[in-house]
Design brief:
- The protein has 313 residues and is of the alpha/beta class.
- The chain folds into 2 domains: 6-205 and 286-312, TIM Barrel (Alpha-Beta Barrel), CATH 3.20.20.70; 208-284, no CATH class.
- It is 42% helix and 15% strand.
- The protein has helices at 6-11, 28-36, 50-63, 79-88, 105-110, 122-130, 154-164, 178-186, 196-199, 208-216, 238-248, 253-260, 264-270, 294-312; strands at 17-19, 41-44, 68-73, 93-97, 114-119, 135-139, 145-146, 169-172, 191-194, 222-225, 232-235.
- The strands form 2 sheets. The protein has an 8-stranded parallel β-sheet with strand order 1-9-8-6-5-4-3-2. Strands 7-11-10 form a 3-stranded antiparallel β-sheet, covered by helices on one side.
- It starts with 5 loop residues before the first helix and ends with a helix.
Amino acid sequence: MFHLNRITGLFNIRYPIIQAGMVWASGWRLAAAVSNAGGLGLIGSGSMYPDVLRAHIQKCKAATTASFGVNIPLLYPDIEKHIQIVIEEKIPVVFTSAGNPAVWTGRLKEQGITVVHVVGSSRFAEKAEQAGCDAVVAEGFEAGGHNGREETTSMVLIPAVCKAVHIPVIAAGGIATGRQMLAAMVLGAEGVQVGTRFVASLEASSHLRFKEAVVNAKEGDTVLALKKLVPVRLLKNRFYEQVLAAEYSGATADHLKALLGRGRAKKGMFEGDLQEGELEIGQVSSLIGEILPAADIVRNIYTEFEQALTGYF
């Protein structure tokens, strides 16, 4: 049984499962593996220079004939070049985040590109719909990486966004299993975006030590920090303790920015420095027990979703 709906039709995919475009984890290998398994793989461009992004796109094209997309954080300093590359490479789907969708959605749509924007509130979901986005990702407080300032949980955010807009809603934040996927669909979503579970995959470009830290994480091991800058959910480590001490002492945004420095996320997630690196990951890491091939992750989520659907309805 395939779950055919507006999301599977919009992306031309078999399952309404989207792999999030996480920085330092979502290269062409992961995107291709997820797309080949029937989901929608995304290349995460936030950690890539323009020439690196183009190389990943071309390698992904060689590795899959299935639909895949690119996630572009709109605050990226070289955003114009990234936009031009996805147009030149004829990417069919672009997910945008961390910025105003009204600035770039029109240009992407003019090129026939399907545009989805990630939001943390129903108010921003409405703005994305007004900007012409084809769908939105409602990302709850549980999610890893950069997060909404409102700190609204997925259980509240998903139905609120579904009520606010007419375009399809993809649920994100705290989703790594088929039962969680079913819960999101019951709340009104037509698909799910999964990040943390795919970080702990063989094909993710993140460092093995970071993947192992994700697998070993327990409840309470992640926390939302750096709220005076851009809120980000982190695994607790020595760097987080430095951030916590600074925040308790009343550090200014400039002080926190200096503490963060440059390359902190790369140091942690890509180079494997588990103490001084910035380790962005979601709360659902506490439910992940092993590193698996991405295809197995897609299959496991959808199989459990079907079993839960049959068992409860």
